[in-house]
């Protein structure tokens, strides 16, 4: 029988999620804004994640261009 050495947490805060995903906090916010809070509702100030949430976020992290992770997008001209 397989036993896990590390115990899984029930909830992860934003910083813990970033550490688990290997991304910067700004990248996490970009992913959330693009894929989760994209219906006009604002992103809550403190988001907590389950392990299932991290699994879905990891899918979007893989789709994110690596070279663009630290690049800021210029705002659209009015």
* H-E order: HHH
Radius of gyration: 15 Å
Helicity, as a percent range: 40-55%
Q: How many H/I helical runs?
A: 3
Unreliable spans are none
- Secondary-structure-derived class: mainly alpha
Q: Summarize model confidence as the mean pLDDT.
A: 82
| Largest sheet geometry | none
Distance between the termini: 61 Å
Task: Describe it.
With 78 residues, the chain is mainly alpha-helical. The protein has a domain at 14-67. It has 3 helices and no strands.
Task: Describe the protein's topology.
Elements: H1 14-21, H2 25-36, H3 51-63
Quick synopsis:
This protein has 78 residues and is mainly α. The chain has helices spanning 14-21, 25-36, 51-63.
Using brief descriptors, characterize the structure shown.
mainly alpha; 78 residues
């Amino acid at each position: 029988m397989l036993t896990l050495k590390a115990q899984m947490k029930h909830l992860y805060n934003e910083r813990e999620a970033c550490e688990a995903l290997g991304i910067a906090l700004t990248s996490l916010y970009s992913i959330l804004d693009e894929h989760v809070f994209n219906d006009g509702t604002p992103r809550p100030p403190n988001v907590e994640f389950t392990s299932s949430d991290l699994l879905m976020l990891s899918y979007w992290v893989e789709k994110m261009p690596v070279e663009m992770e630290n690049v800021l997008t210029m705002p659209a001209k009015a």
